[in-house]
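REVIEWER CHECKLIST
Item 1: Sequence provided? yes
Item 2: Single chain? yes
Item 3: Sequence as submitted:
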Amino acid sequence: MHIDLRQLRHFIALAEQRSFVAGAQTVNLSQSAFSRSIQALEHSVGCPLVDRGRKDLAPTKQGQVLLEHARRLVSGARQMANEISQFNGLEAGELQFGCGPAPASGLVPRAIGRFIGRYPKARVQFQVDDWQSLSKRLLSEEFEFFVADTRQFEADPAYVTQRLRPRKWYFCCRTGHPLANRGSVSAAELLSYPQAITIRPPNLRKVLVQLSGRPDYAPNVECESPFSLMSVVLSSDAIGICGAYSDVFLYASGNLVRLQVDELAEEQDALYTRYGIVSRAGVRLSPLAQAMIEHIKELDNSDVCGLENFAI
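Item 4: Structure as written out by the authors:
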């Protein structure tokens, strides 16, 4: 059986696009050339790889097996070429990693800025998503690592986690809000206004359930983007939540106010982040991945980012 990587790339494109036309466009081939490549691959493996009787061209059982291996092989070949290029001192490789929405609002973009200053020829692709999706893409070898909440991974031997510094979450409102000039507010006062927040991190959900007394608590506006949520807060009487790792307060230019909530103890663990760097156990990271991680950790320890440095 002879299979080349080019054919595997074409099959991955077909499986993702579920269309010969769209798949061909994805890999910059004519439809006829793309179809011949898929047919040649099917001839090599001795069976159909997609069900042509279905409109969505779903992979056959054999196609599903091949697709799983194809993704690993293509990813491995890319990483091999990437590492060799990096070790040759060209510093022009490609780095792909993932990031949760919260670290993507300040810490990680700043670290990337420093990184490309050191490696101006490198290409960086980072995908912002929730930790479940990031985990799947890590295990499928699309990413070398991701930055997100580490709670689900710390005890799992399939992963290696490197914790970042815990940073505090703050309730906040716009300047001019009825609660803005109060030294502290009660939970009842806080919850009497609409909430525009993310409850994805389990610690935030715990805090909000505690304050509301309702296990089925749901905010008025929910979104994973800190900047989008703060735009809602700045244009309404909604209450938001922002972490000290974020640049949101910096860009708000003094128009956001932190709120002190009577019922929340300052040292409460649930008020702090638990973010870190997650990679696969037993997998060597490329030189560029190691360099990016070092930039993230160095910046995280430098106190040059974060709400603690802004007087509001």
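Item 5: Key structural point noted by reviewer: The chain has a mean pLDDT of 86.
Item 6: Recommendation: ____
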